[in-house]
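Example 3.
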Amino acid sequence: MSTATANVMPAKHYLNDNYGIRSWLLTKDHKRIAVLYLASITVFFFIGGIYAALIRLHLLTPQGALFQADTYNKLFTMHGVNMIFFFLVPSVPAVMGNFILPIMIGAKDLAFPKINLLSWYIYIGGALFSLAALVSGGVDTGWTFYTPLSTGFLRTPVTVLAIGVLIAGFSSIFTGLNFIVTVHRMRAPGMTWGRLPLFVWANYATSIIMILGTPVLAITLILVALERAFHIGVFDPKLGGDPVLFQHMFWFYSHPAVYIMILPGMGVISEIITCFSRKRVFGYPFIAFSSIAIAVFGFVVWAHHMFVAGISVYSALVFSLLSYAVAIPSAVKVFNWTATMYKGSISLQTPMLYALAFIGLFTIGGLTGLFLAALGLDIHIHDTYFVIAHFHYIMVGGMVTAYMGGLHFWWPKITGRMYPEGWSKLSALIVFIGFNLTFFPQFILGYLGMPRRYAAYPPEFQVLNVLSTAGASILAVGFIMPAIYFIWSLKYGEVAGNNPWQATGLEWEISSPPPTHNFHETPIVTTEPYHYGAEQEVPVVP
Amino acid sequence: MQSTVPLFPEQASTIAHHVDWLYLFLVAITAFFSLLVAALILFFIIRYKRTPDREAEQIHGSTLLEIVWTVIPLGISMVIFVWAAVLYFHMQRPPSNAMEVYGVAKQWMWKFEYPGGQREINSLHVPIGRPVRVTLISQDVIHSFFVPAFRVKQDVLPNRYMTTWFEAKEPGTYHLFCSQYCGTKHSAMIGEVVAMKPEDFASWLTSGKAEGSLAAQGEKLFQQLGCATCHRADSGARGPNLAGLYGRQVRLTDGHVVVADDNYIRESILVPNAKVVSGFQPIMPTFQGMISEEDLIQLSDYIKHLSAQQQEGPLNNRSTPEQIRDSEVKQVQDQMKQQDTVPQKTSGNNK
């Protein structure tokens, strides 16, 4: 850094404003709540990661190297539930959205600070239920809870896990509600809708899905619990119910939930690409509205998970067509990000490495989604490893990569200190290599016909499975390294200063870590976002 | 399998290469755009690398470019959509000359039955060069019938028959997987599909130990369960005569018209009051829990068989269900449209 000499920690900030466990557990400060979320979802990320590691180790040999089939089934169920409901859904919104979104729009907090704290407690409540399901034997429904298997055939604590997921759902409803009201009501003077950072737009779109979609998941899970307890006959065919109805209800939430998980990541990428290219974003309105378009279209494509489930050919036709409608705004985003780099002044620090990895991996993940939306082709690859590879390219290659990029990008703002650049670049590279080695072979496995959720498989699939497991062990290293150096940096990291990246945006104009109330006086916004321009000094990469 | 890692499953059915061509087209699209984006990114980070005297040139955007990269993906998507939809419709329509096989899935095995009464478990023998229609039902949870070499997959539901079809091209033994997670031994619910030359298949069929054809067994059941007490051909019968029923349109007491297919027959045995034929009382007891899915298939096949025998049976006899001649269908439909009700197909949910 060219200005390394001048950086000192501010005397007073949100972290040292108050001490003691009470000051954290009863905090109403959005930044502290974000830190609480960061700590808790990190725990769940690593628990989910341990499940993943065990799954991959088990699949080293065709007969399964480690576990009984039952145990394996519990592992992939808990992996899915943990990663989706307790890591991916809250990840960027609850950590970075909570921390940065109010500051980005010039607000002193979210609209409902107490509800914000409540959402964290609810999340923890749900998480405890999911852990209770684990210690009382584990659940083997798959994260999809398909009926009538989940309602009539399993004696594992399905209801406990369903309640956990149900409870966690309310925390995301509260977060969504808070974001929507905050964005509408608490923007600083001059912060018009057209000046909102794209990260805010993305989280706003996400919030809409959260409050519209999550209640349907809640209803569905309540029905599963009632069906198990009282045999009410909604899903059980023996009682006149319809198991396919469950799939409609489940995917009505769970498909949009994919966009809950990816949209905030797209917001992070828009921030990083502009900053490290020192460029205004290319096509601001198109990126902003493509987020809304994805949120809206995302609600009308759910049955593309059900092309072989017994829906009529005509409804399959409609849902296939609509699924392609979601592909367009995603493509628009990718092209705009790429175009943003054109004639930029590009430096490849860690957040940018993650952002570029995101663009590449998300492109592959998105395009392979076209395979699954293609009716005649989906028949063959549905419920195979192709699907697994596809959504891990979106969820890990996309969302986790964006999350890591965002975490590195805003780490100096959150903690006031820099992480070690060399180590972080190395770990980004390891994640990229490990990720591709883990999941690329799964596309081929899927096309060859290996079904998902198999504890044992025919021997001809072994080579690709071994490659995948090898990749997973590399990937694990890539994720353990940041956990170590981030903690190290809390004490030994270089003091960051207000704006280590020379980025635009209100969050970079206040001290790092920010003061408790963010702004000493309400800022007045006079410029569009990403006003990177000739008048700014261009920092030199060391 | 060879020692090298294969990239494609065998192309053992008539549709396999159609699916593979679509797949390859999509692989090409994916490769092209991924490489395009990657190449642009690499070019930009090298060409526009930050140096002390490099200043970014500010560009706001370009509506023309936005239109270009909206329209091109849209166009490509529509090509894929249409191509895949046409293929899908082909895959969903079994040819009329298809050979029939029944499959019952349960945790964790596949049972198959041929009209001749031959049965097998976890293996399915089929002739090559002839379309085979598989009618599937599950005894418990949802399973899925997946033969990668044929590019065929169909979920198997516990509450209604699903069908799929394929025509094997090459003699051989191929994997049959359950691809819908179905509990503990999901991954052990595997079997094989053996495709044979027609003459080999014919001798295989005759070598099997069958206890009479499905229809014959169904007839036995029909007597044992006392179905014949009510479903008779005389005028005092309390239930509709089933001769000539299969495949016909039937009018119900609520005025709806349904096609008497396998699902209708199965439902009428298990939930008799769901669709009561016009002119009859809802007095039939349920047979739910009393007969197995195999029994149901046999009964169904017997009823089908009755229809084949008695194509020319009387239609307006008091003891037959109120059946409708094909020539009358349009008239009935018009009548119903006026009542503002839409005739329902039985292929959908039985709601």
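Chain A touches chain B through 96 residues (CB under 8 Å). The CA atoms of residues 122 and 488 of chain A lie 30 Å apart.
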